[in-house]
Amino acid sequence: MKTKHGLARSFAFALEGIWGEFKKGGNFRIQVFMGVAAIILGFIFKISEQEWFSLILVIASVLILELINTAVEAIVDMISPEIQEKAKIAKDVSAGAVLVSSIAAVFVGAILFLPKIFQ
Question: Which InterPro entries does the UniProt record give (predicted)?
Fold first, then answer.
């Protein structure tokens, strides 16, 4: 399945994957909306460059890991449609990575915004 694509086509495939996950709804859409809300709060509270760096990093990590989790789940389901212990481990660990990243994002958001909200 090796084919050559130009840079523009590669970007189109990537955007198709992101848009497809967004349209499907679920966790990715919620995470995108939460990220957008955090960015809006960043503008409202005029956060510093360092705070922007932290905010963008945690938002990106959550979204990236959610996309990877979806890819892992799709591959595992394709390779192993029947329930197997190792397939379950792969899916659970992948979901766990998203959870850890999401918890970190909540803490970063709380550290950045709670003092500004209650100021």
Answer: DAGK (IPR000829), DAGK_sf (IPR036945), UDPK (IPR033717)
Q: What is the CATH number of the domain that holds 40?
A: 1.10.287.3610
Q: Point out the catalytic residue in the list 49, 51, 66, 82.
A: 66
Does residue 54 form part of some domain? yes
User: Directed axis angle between helix 7-24 and helix 49-79, to 10°?
Assistant: 80
Respond yes or no: is residue 66 known to be catalytic. Answer: yes
DSSP labels, 45-86: TT--HHHHHHHHHHHHHHHHHHHHHHHHHHHHHHH--S--HH
Instruction: Give the total number of structural domains in the chain.
Output: 1
Determine whether the annotation assigns residue 116 to a binding site.
no
- 92 assigned to a ligand binding site: yes
pLDDT tens digit sequence for 54-101: 999 999 999 999 999 999 999 999 998 888 999 999 999 999 999 999
pLDDT, one tens digit per residue, over 14-61 is 999 999 999 997 999 999 999 999 999 999 999 999 999 999 999 999
In a domain, 1, yes or no: no
